[in-house]
Amino acid sequence: MTTPTERWPAPRALPLLAALFLSAAGAAAGEDEEGAAPKQVMPLTLQQCIHLAERNSIPVRIEEVNVQIGEAELGSSLGVFDTVFFSSYEYAKAVSPTVSRLSTGNIFAPSTETVVTGILNESHTVTSGFRGSLIGGGSYQADANWVKTERNPVTFGNFNPEYTSGIGLAVTQPLLRGFGSAVSKAGVLTARNALLGAAENLEATREARAEEVVVAYWNHYFAIRNLVTREFLVGQGERLVEINQKKLDVGEFRRIDVVEAESTLATREQERIAAVNEIGRAADALKRLIFPFETREEWEIEVVPLTEAAEEAIERPSWREAARVALERRHELRQKRLQLENDDIRIMVAENTQLPQLDLTASLRFNQLADNSGDVTNYDDDYYSIGAGVNLEVPLGNRTARYDLAAARLTKIRSLLEYKDLENQIIQEVRDAVRDVSNRQEQIVAAGEASRLAKERWVAEQKRQETGYSTTFQVRDAEAAWQESEDAYLRALFDYQVALASLHAAQGTLLEEYGLLPAPAPRLDDRAGVLFDS
Predict the structure, then answer these.
(1) Which helix (H) or strand (E) holds 76?
(2) How much of the chain, in percent, has pLDDT values that exceed 70?
(3) d(Cα 63, Cα 227) in Å, to the nearest integer?
């Protein structure tokens, strides 16, 4: 399939269009002060306008920021697997009462006395270690602690102060609910799909912006072409008034013939003024799309379109082939596929949460004791503790999990229906676009022939009027018919260019057609590939 061609206008056509545009724009901006600095003129091709819009578009910038937000949120989701270092210090002081019985009196009169005294225990505890989550759904903690204990009074056989320490490892692994890498990575995969969806939305926004520029560019282009026609008709109207006035002077025409010609000229002048205003409106619409507007002066730039409307026919594509490309390339469908993946993830997690909580725990710890020398770092395997266990938790009723699963499955059904509806909508858009391209080609041929014949008739009527075989009414009627046919031809050219852009947009290939590369792929965390592939 060929693309809209980029051609420089013929050497005579370009100065005419540029000069006419500048003079018309000057007339439209009548409020500018006399003697103001000349306005900047910027000749641009359609492709240049699309590239400018790509660079300066605020909606595109917004979607680029959304991609960056998605990258940040993906990085945040990976934090669930980050190892955490922890450390704590605890001071404790306790005075506990104790009862002692003392013997008093003598052997002849023995007696006892109860004495309550306090035992002071003071300790300093430091604990440091690492903990984190495992890819299989479990968790671990490795730590070391150091404890200094002082007692008063000192009990027999104890160190004072006493130093104890230990190092240990504890692991918890779910066997049912929460088991497996698929469950533990669900949040990461969802964030990854959200990021890819943001990237697809960026491309869709770029495509939509490019299509807007195409429409605005051809609106501006044909507004100028329309003014060319209006200027020509005004000139012909002035010539007709002059001819009729001369014939009136020699008695060949009546006054009514001159009045009719002057009335037609006044109408044509109104149409020319309207065409000048339309150029300003169309130019502003195009400038809004392509300029960054860092200063207000950019509104005063005069854009001169250089790309001519392509009249050559292209081979009508098969709608089936065009639909195949569209179903593969359209960014809306890609976003829906990512949504379906997220729905599957949600269903998988909801099914897992219906299972009982059955966790296997295991721990191993080595301990050490030292006197006031404080040498507590030489561990051996003589003093240790080891443990293992199973924790079971079964929710009765489990309504939250059951209804979450039902909602997840219904959401998937809804997404499938939306996907199918979107497919049908895209196929319809493609079929309409293919039909429109073919129809616009035929309209260009028919409108061009109608315009040529209408102009021949108008010229013939003018010649007949000069020799007295035609009236002002007939000339005006022929002129109006030619004007309408010329407008129809210009509209056919415009509709053809828009139809081509709509076809490329319907297939998701508009950016490619105008030489715009895809946006850079979103950046993933260094560990993301390992997590996604494992």
Answers:
(1) helix 58-78
(2) 83
(3) 38
Amino acid identity at 287? K
Q: How many CB atoms lie within 10 A of CB 26?
A: 14
DSSP string, 392-409: EE--SS-HHHHHHHHHHH
- At residue 412, the 3 state secondary structure works out as helix
Distance CA 190, CA 201 (A): 16
Return the DSSP state at 524.
Answer: -
- Asked whether 16 and 304 are in contact (CB, 8 A), the reply is no
The CA distance from 326 to 506, in Å, is: 6
Q: Whole-structure pTM over 0.85, yes or no?
A: no
Residue given tokens 């993301």 in the structure block: 528
- Is there a contact between 141 and 170 (Cβ–Cβ < 8 Å)? yes
In angstroms, rounded to a whole number, what is the distance separating the alpha carbons of residues 215 and 500? 11
Four-CA torsion 266, 272, 276, 282, nearest 10 degrees: 130
Strand partners, 102: 113
Upper half-sphere CA count for residue 286 (Cβ side, 13 Å): 31
What is the distance between the alpha carbons of residues 443 and 311, in angstroms, rounded to a whole number? 11
* Mean pLDDT confidence for 127-136: 93
Lowest mean per-residue pLDDT among 31-45, 266-280, 293-307: 31-45
Which pLDDT does position 408 carry in this prediction? 95
Q: Quick count: other Cβ atoms within 10 Å of Cβ 169?
A: 15
Give 163's strand partners: 148, 370
Tokens, residue 333: 């469908």
Helices (H), 364-398: none
| Torsion angle of C-alpha atoms 437, 440, 446, 452, degrees rounded to 10 | -120
Amino acid at 129: G
Running DSSP on this structure, what letter comes out for residue 309?
Answer: P
What is the separation of C-alpha 156 from the centre of its chain, rounded to a whole number of angstroms? 76
**Torsion sign, CA atoms 481, 482, 485, 491:** negative
How far is Cα 304 from Cα 279, in angstroms, rounded to an integer? 11
Helix (H, G, I), strand (E, B), or coil: what is residue 53? Answer: helix
Q: How far apart are CA 146 and CA 165, in angstroms?
A: 4
Task: Please report, for the chain, how many H helices and E strands are present, in that order.
Answer: 12, 8
Contact 215, 494 (CB under 8 A): no
Which pair of structure tokens corresponds to residue 341? 């993946």
Q: Identify which of 131, 167, 132, 130 has the alpha carbon closest to the alpha carbon of residue 146.
A: 167
pLDDT for 497: 87
Region for 136 from its dihedrals, namely left if φ exceeds 0, alpha if ψ lies in -120 to 50, beta otherwise: alpha
Report phi then psi at 240, rounded to 5: -65, -40
The amino acid occupying position 204 is: A
Q: Which residues contact 274 (CB under 8 A, 6 or more apart)?
A: none
